[in-house]
Structure formats: C-alpha cells, structure tokens
Amino acid sequence: MGKELKSEEERIDGRLRAIVADDDPFARRVIKDVLERAGVIVLAEARDGPEAVELTLRYRPDVVVMDVVMPGLDGIMATRQIRRQLPEQLVLVLTGAGADDAEFGLLALRAGAGGFLSKEVEIESLPRALEGLRQGQAAISRTMTLALVERLRESPNGSSGMRPIKSLLTAREWEVIDLLKETKSTNQIADELVLSPETIRSHVKNILRKLKVRSRQEAVAVADEMRTAAPPIEVPEGGGP
User: Fold this and answer.
1) How is the chain split into domains, by residue range?
2) How far apart are CA 179 and CA 187, in angstroms?
3) Do the domains at 11-152 and 171-228 have one common CATH topology?
4) Whole-angstrom Cα distance, residue 174 to residue 168?
5) Where are the alpha helices (DSSP H) in the chain?
C-alpha cells in the first residue's frame, strides 16, 4: 500500500517514471545513476525480458528503458509483448555499439519502440531523450537516422512502401497492403504491426471494400496499379494549352 501511494504521489508531481531493463548489473547501475541525477524516478529494474514485461504491466511507468540483448526474451520481443498489452506504453531500446545497430534499430521501431540509442555513445543524453519521448518526439540519434535511411534505401522491396499522395486507403491500410504483398498471414501482420488479429481483419475488410475487390491478391494487384499509375493531367478550363 505504501509503495502504491508513493508511486501515485510521484506520478502527480510530474517527474518522469521509468523502468530499466538490462541483464548486466553494471549497465543497470550506470543507467539508473544517469536517470536519477536528472530527476527521473526509477521504479524498478529488470534482469531479463520476461521480468521487464512483468514489471511494466505492474507499475505502468512513463517509459521503459530496454536493452536489446537479454536472456529469456530479448528487448525487441519484450517491447512487442508490452505494446500488445499496453498500446500507449513508451519504450526506448538501448544497444551497445556494433555493426548490427541499424538492423536492431529497424526491428525495435517495428516492434513499437519510440526510440533507439547507443549506450556507449548517448548514455548522458538519455534523460533528455526520455523527456522528448514523453513529449511525442522520436528518440533516434542523427547517426542512427542516417543508417536507417540507408538501410531502407537498400531494402529490396520493389514498389512496397510507395503509395499515391492522394488515395482511398489510409496510411495504416497501405502498411497492411505491403505485408499482404509479402503473403503474410493475418497473425503475422498483427505481429509485425503490433495490433490484434481482429484489427487486421477489419483493415483488410475495409481495403477490399474501398478497392472493390473480392480477395487479398486482387487488392495487392490493384494497389500496385495505383502505385505506378501516372497522375491525371489537369486541363485548364476552356480547353487547350
């Protein structure tokens, strides 16, 4: 009871409330020290992915600071599980410097993380990044942003991701179309977009209705035509040039 009361008081005073998840005790201590020096309240510490999920569901912090590599359940899968159960939960994923940063970054963001930073390079800026995340800003470094842009440019997805500026479909429905094109199932799409299968079925139903088609394959074909179609030429009133 005392802990719950204290937690409510901390929530009211506006201070950022966080959970730190990292399997390395030294890393947890460093992260906690950096956050607490900046006035962030560290509610709990998790030693692995399952504990991170459990503590997040129990304490409902403002943000979870999640290491990407942990035993039992890695930070990306833990983020996905948290976001499924708490769709509004903010998660910032941390990684050690390495060649796979861009790949981990893409996976983390797709899993629902709102930020992705390096522990070695950006640890001192972590409190500011968390506050920005609470204010609706993505927490991604310039270096990471450039790496992710390059990785997306290199991705061999053909016309996937491209969409007309004006379209009957919403941005989310285009995301579903992209995954349908990869022949992913309803459950796989739900997993990829961190949504429920029921929500995906609703999106697919709306796509079929809007495109006036009967199957997912037809929807993909019509969407591809929409992507490649030239925009209509507007003729000035009165006729000719």
Assistant:
1) 11-152, 171-228
2) 11
3) no
4) 10
5) 2-12, 25-37, 49-59, 75-85, 101-111, 119-122, 126-134, 142-154, 171-181, 186-193, 197-211, 216-228
How far apart CA 16 and CA 10 sit, in angstroms, is: 8
- At position 87, the amino acid (one-letter code) is P
Length of the chain: 241
CA angle 119, 194, 52 (to 5 degrees): 45
pTM (two decimals): 0.64
- CATH placement of domain 171-228: 1.10.10.10
Fold of 11-152: Rossmann fold (3.40.50)
> How many angstroms separate the Cα of 238 from the Cα of each of 81, 138, 232, 234?
60, 49, 17, 12
Dihedral angle over CA of 161, 89, 96, 116, nearest 10: 40
Instruction: Report the interhelical angle of 75-85 vs 101-111 (nearest 10°).
Output: 10
Q: What is the pLDDT along the chain (241 residues), one digit of tens a residue?
A: 445 445 555 555 789 999 999 999 999 999 999 999 999 999 999 999 999 999 999 999 999 999 998 988 899 999 999 998 998 999 999 987 554 567 788 788 888 899 888 877 667 889 999 999 999 888 887 777 777 777 666 654 545 556 666 778 888 899 899 999 999 999 999 888 878 889 999 999 999 999 999 999 999 999 888 877 644 444 444 444 4
Show the tokens assigned to 87.
Answer: 């769709």
Distance (Å, whole) CA 94 – CA 84 = 20
